């Protein structure tokens, strides 16, 4: 049975970050949830869950800033339509506008640092750490970089 009082947004770039986020499927099933990810050649799907798509962003491409700006406008449309209470993200660059705008919108932000990073923080993690209401690391070594973070083990 879904808890209709909370609406959750799960946001991640495509590939491994989205795969990692999908480990939270049981949580998605308990709440009114939707997923925001990058549009790629393949479209992700999960029965019973709504998907929204952002543009892929590569920080090394000249179009990076324009794509981030486009994602900010797409994020505003998504936030306006869905009005999530909580945004849960594993990053990365493409979802930063959504995360920042969600905070302005009044949603709580939960960031989960990548499982792949054992000894060093990600750029997205370092940036969003100051904006997140809750920040989780999947390795105790990362508590050195994020003293206010919570370590509960790995997501897998």
Automatic annotation (TrEMBL):
Chief localisation class: endoplasmic reticulum
Alphabetical keyword list: Endoplasmic reticulum, Membrane, Transmembrane, Transmembrane helix
Compartment(s) of residence: Endoplasmic reticulum membrane
Coiled-coil blocks: none
InterPro entries: Oligosacch_biosynth_Alg14
Domain of life: Bacteria
Biological process terms in GO annotation: dolichol-linked oligosaccharide biosynthetic process
UniProt-recorded Gene Ontology molecular function terms: N-acetylglucosaminyldiphosphodolichol N-acetylglucosaminyltransferase activity
Recorded topology in the membrane: Single-pass membrane protein
NCBIfam families: PssD (NF041549)
Protein name according to UniProt: Polysaccharide biosynthesis protein
Species the sequence originates in: Schaedlerella arabinosiphila
